[in-house]
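re: that chain from earlier
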Amino acid sequence: MKTKILNPKAKLLLGAGLDVLHFESREWIKTIDFWKDEVRFFDHLLKKKVSTDKNKHEYSSMLENLDKIHSDLFKDLEDSIIQHEKLLSRIEKSEKGLSDADYRDQHHRIQTKMKTFTNEFKTFKKIVFEYVKNI
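^ sequence. v structure.
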């Protein structure tokens, strides 16, 4: 059984030059910065729209906790990308024992994390918007 590649761009990027992968890493940092802004907005929105209904208040608290969890995940992702970029710097300096294959492997792992988190964050945003609409 053949498996279909869901994102052909991913395979192309991993075969691309290191400069292209570096550019994608920089884009990830910008995406995370945008997500951080969104989380601040959600935090503000949730605090502004607190419900007096006990169940809804508990739900609001849960969403606020999820905001905090996302902030921690952003930090983890951002740290991974920064370390990834430092690896590229070491490779460009021709440090012994490193190859661009190391960078490409790490890039693929981070790329997978970013895709997964992007989907999870979209789901979270839908939940927040639905909650705020119903208050």
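Residues 23-133 form one domain.
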